[in-house]
Design brief:
Pfam families: Cupin_2. It comes from Streptomyces hiroshimensis. This is Cupin type-2 domain-containing protein. InterPro entries: Cupin_2, RmlC-like_jellyroll, RmlC_Cupin_sf. This protein has 135 residues and is mainly beta. The protein has one domain: Jelly Rolls (Sandwich). 3% of the residues lie in helices and 50% in strands. It has one helix and nine strands; from the N terminus they run βββββββββα. Strands 1, 2, 3, 4, 5, 6, 7, 8 and 9 form a nine-stranded antiparallel beta sheet that branches. The radius of gyration is 17 Å and the shape is globular.
Length: 135
């Protein structure tokens, strides 16, 4: 897992349209994790973020601040701080920021149909650094 500080520089999405910043806080290295990435999105008023089935991932989007609208399957509903949106791998979801903008924390993971095909992973930490699981 590759980790980055939250205050590191952000990348801008859709430079021609409403402001939207994206910063990757953590991402997998190679195929050693089911977690694809943990991202921080800051959407200015009118900016959107989309989840599409062709991306091959599942996604959880947690609203940190602001107000917006989530559209999926022809239905649009309001979203605000403290809400969690779940987007399965075959879902089409668009989140649009309203007047005050929207800040989202997203966790993108590989779907079970993919992870079920991956080989078992074994921790490679030195023995003295491993924690025993207490059951």
């Amino acid at each position: 897992m590759i980790i980055q500080r939250a205050d590191a520089s952000a990348r801008f999405l859709n430079a021609a349209g409403p402001s939207a910043e994206w910063a990757c806080l953590a991402r997998r290295g190679m195929l050693h994790s089911e977690c694809e990435a943990v991202d921080l999105l800051r959407l200015g008023p009118g900016a959107t973020a989309a989840h599409r089935p062709d991306e091959g991932i599942e996604q959880a989007l947690y609203v940190l601040a602001g107000r917006g609208e989530a559209t999926s399957g022809g239905t649009t509903r309001p979203v605000g701080a403290g809400e969690l949106l779940l987007a399965p791998h075959d879902c089409r979801l668009t989140v649009r920021a309203l007047d005050e903008g929207l800040e989202l924390l997203t966790v993108r993971v590989l779907p079970a149909r993919t992870t079920g095909r991956l080989p078992a992973r074994i921790p490679e930490l030195p023995e003295e650094q491993r924690m025993e699981c207490v059951r």
